[in-house]
Every structure is written in structure tokens, then in C-alpha cells.
Design a protein that fits this description.
The protein has helices at 14-26, 29-59, 66-104, 170-190, and strands spanning 6-12, 113-120, 123-127, 132-136, 142-145, 149-154, 158-163. By secondary structure, the chain is an alpha+beta fold. The protein has two domains: 6-16 and 108-190, Roll (PH-domain like), CATH 2.30.29; 24-104. The strands form two sheets. A four-stranded antiparallel beta sheet has the order 1-2-3-4, with helices on one face. A three-stranded antiparallel beta sheet has the order 5-6-7, with helices on both faces. Helix 1 crosses helix 3 (66-104) and helix 2 packs antiparallel against helix 3. The longest helix has 39 residues, at 66-104. The radius of gyration is 24 Å and the shape is elongated. The protein starts with 5 loop residues before the first strand and ends with a helix. The relative contact order is 0.16.
């Protein structure tokens, strides 16, 4: 790899597309609202049963009083947000996987397959069997590295994905990210 141009070539598969969708989902305003709501559900799932148990204990000290019924209601209503909280992740993961498999399992894969990326001071260039795409740096929002992928985000909901499998080892993967980030930051100063 030269300092001013980076090249990488790899084959994208359905699991990579699923990871890309997870990344996009977790970095959209919609997901942040869902996530906040999910955390509120968790809070209710903890608080309601505690109030319910206290009320229930108060209500059954001598005989079952209205406080006991309040306690039962709070315990029941605490399980609704808890169920919602626990099921949300499963629902999103299953839904993304099903949609990706449905879209890219038909043999009309324009995203799945061989990708050849060039990262240069001009921008990011991606060549596939079906497409030839170039984005200038002024259109790129950020470059993010995870343990398995490098994501190059293009607003509002686009992303280039580079898989760690394309590199011989961790140090080559990390060096590619650092070099790409340097090119990106340098280009951002001139834009």
C-alpha cells in the first residue's frame, strides 16, 4: 500500500451486509429514539415490580387489601416493558437477517460479491461486477473501525464496508484504517 492510495479487494457476503445494516441502524436517529425508548422500558420493568412487591407486601400483612391489588397490577405492568425490552433486539436482528437474505438470496446480487476499493486523496472508489462508484471526500461523513469491519459513511444512509477478512493480519487491517483515516482527515481540511 502506498501512502497516497490504498487498494483492497475482497468478496462481500450476506453476513457482511447484515453487519452493515446493523451499523446503519444503530447510527440513525430512528434507532437512537428506539434505543432510548427501549432503555425507558427497562427502567419501567425494574421500577414497576419493585413498587408492586412493596405494595403487595403492604397489602397482605394481615389480609389482602386494595394495596395488594395495586401491587399485583404493578408487577404485571412491569413484565410488559421487560418483555418488550428483551424482545426488541431479537426482533431487529431477525428482521434484518430475513430482509438481507430475501433481497440478496435471489441471484440478483449487486452488493454481494467481489469489491475492489481504491482510497485516494480524491475519494473512495468501489468497483464491482455491476457498478463503478466514486464518492468525493466532501460527500463522506466519517470512517469508523470495528473489530471486524471498516465503515465509510455517506449521508444520509449510505456506507462502504471493508471487511477484516481482506487483510492478512490484524496489523495490516489496523494500518489500512489508520492510513484511510489520515487520507480522509487530510482531504477534509482541503474541502
Amino acid at each position: 500500500m502506498s501512502a497516497d492510495k490504498l487498494y483492497v479487494e475482497f468478496t462481500l457476503n450476506n453476513d457482511d451486509i447484515i453487519a452493515m445494516n446493523h451499523f446503519l441502524l444503530q447510527n440513525t436517529p430512528e434507532w437512537k429514539r428506539v434505543n432510548k425508548s427501549k432503555h425507558n422500558s427497562y427502567l419501567y420493568a425494574v421500577i414497576f415490580p419493585i413498587i408492586g412487591i412493596i405494595s403487595l407486601l403492604k397489602g397482605i400483612t394481615t389480609e389482602f387489601t386494595p394495596w395488594g391489588w395495586v401491587g399485583v397490577c404493578f408487577i404485571i405492568f412491569g413484565f410488559i416493558p421487560l418483555t418488550s425490552y428483551l424482545y426488541a433486539n431479537h426482533y431487529w436482528n431477525r428482521n434484518i437477517k430475513n430482509q438481507v437474505n430475501k433481497l440478496y438470496g435471489r441471484g440478483k446480487d449487486t452488493l454481494v460479491g467481489l469489491h475492489k476499493y481504491t482510497i485516494s486523496p480524491e475519494g473512495v472508489h468501489d468497483i464491482t461486477e455491476f457498478d463503478d462508484t466514486t464518492y468525493k471526500w466532501k460527500a463522506i461523513e466519517n470512517i469508523v473501525q470495528t473489530d471486524k469491519y471498516i465503515f465509510i459513511t455517506v449521508p444520509p444512509r449510505g456506507v462502504f464496508i471493508i471487511t477484516k477478512r481482506a487483510f492478512p493480519d490484524d496489523s495490516a487491517y489496523n494500518q489500512f484504517f489508520e492510513d484511510a483515516k489520515t487520507i480522509f482527515q487530510t482531504a477534509q481540511k482541503t474541502v
